[in-house]
Amino acid sequence: MDEFTPSHVYFVGAGPGDPELITLKGYRLLSKAEVVIYAGSLINPALLDYCQPSAKCVDSAALNLGQIIELMVSSVREGKLVVRLQTGDLALYGSIREQGEELAKQGIGFRSIAGVSSFLGAAAELGAEYTVPEVAQSLIITRMAGRTPTPELESLERFAAHQTSMAIFLSVQGIDAVVDKLLTGGYCRETPIAVVYKATWPECQVVKGTLSDIADQVKAAGINKTALILVGRFLGDEYHYSKLYDAEFSHEYRQV
Ligand code: SAH
Predict the structure, then answer these.
(1) Rounded to an integer, what distance in angstroms lies between the CA atom of residue 8 and that of residue 199?
(2) Quick one: which atom of ligand 1 is closest to the CA of 94?
(3) CA atoms of 244 and 62, how far apart (whole Å)
(4) Most ligand 1 atoms within 8 A of CB, residue of 18, 41, 42, 218 to mutate
(5) Is 70 exceeded by the pLDDT of residue 1?
(6) 29 lines ligand 1 (CB under 6 A)
């Protein structure tokens, strides 16, 4: 088992919300941490129950990058075990690169502890599989351009041309525009689509429909943040059994 060293900052993926969906390593770090800086807008506060009562838990929502770094640096210099707790997994829309660069300037390294991303939590809520044999074998993870632009080659329209499974982050507030772009790009109006609000939280809401009616349903449900838009025929009725478990299909581990 790893021993944790207070000379680094530990970036921990908190999972999508359910406090049981953090990794054991993340849990162990939280239970030992002396300073925890968590993204309050998205982190389930129940995760902080894993911390010692003496731990200093700070919501980063009101802090800017400089203030977050200063808190990390001063705490590490005091010899404290510092955890930066972020939603889902760190590798998607996690801004860990800029935090890592700023820490490096102060001579402090970081380690990342993987988490369960919300696109996986959302699929679990639906009991769905993004990759369905002969229907969709790829998943596009993206967002609509907002205040943060996306490269032109990564527009929703261009991705829609593939008509495969898509998980769209950070975009539900613009559901009308998302639907327009998906239709312009190539999906037909009957394509199934689901919006999952707060996947794996007790207050999770799932709205299902097609590209024709989803925008109205999402607005009627009052969903305008903390949601994923999942689109593609993987949500539809067509599926084919996989070859892997087919009794007529031999492979390395099993002969017909
Ligand atoms: N690193 C995170 C994503 C951070 S960006 C991850 O791996 O999930 C924040 C966006 O993630 C939100 O706007 C929303 O689109 C999505 N999100 C995060 N938690 C979610 C949840 N529990 N249910 C649905 N969407 C969620």
Answers:
(1) 31
(2) 1
(3) 50
(4) 42
(5) no
(6) no
Q: Is the CB of 121 under 6 A from ligand 1?
A: yes
> What are the structure tokens assigned to 51, written together?
């911390």
| pLDDT (mean) for 212-238 | 96
Question: Ligand 1 within 6 A of 94 CB?
Answer: yes
> Tens digits of per-residue pLDDT, 23-64?
999 999 999 999 999 999 999 999 999 999 999 999 999 999
Alpha carbon 96 to its chain's center: 14
Distance CA 190, CA 213 (A): 9
- Helix (H/G/I), strand (E/B), else coil: 168: strand
84, 126, 169, 170: which to mutate for ligand 1, most atoms within 8 A of CB? 169
Model-level pTM greater than 0.85? yes
Query: Residue ranges of the domains in the chain?
Result: 8-113, 118-235
What is the fold of 8-113? Cobalt-precorrin-4 Transmethylase; domain 1 (3.40.1010)
User: Which residue has its alpha carbon closest to ligand 1 atom 24?
Assistant: 227
Structure token digits, residue 224:
């305008």
pLDDT-derived band at 256 (thresholds 50, 70, 90) equals: confident
120 CB near ligand 1 (under 6 Å): no
Say how far residue 202 (Cα) sits from the centre of its chain: 17
Q: Say if ligand 1 is within 6 A of residue 93 CB.
A: yes
**CA torsion angle 121 126 127 128 (round to 10):** -90
CATH class (in words) of the domain with range 118-235: alpha beta
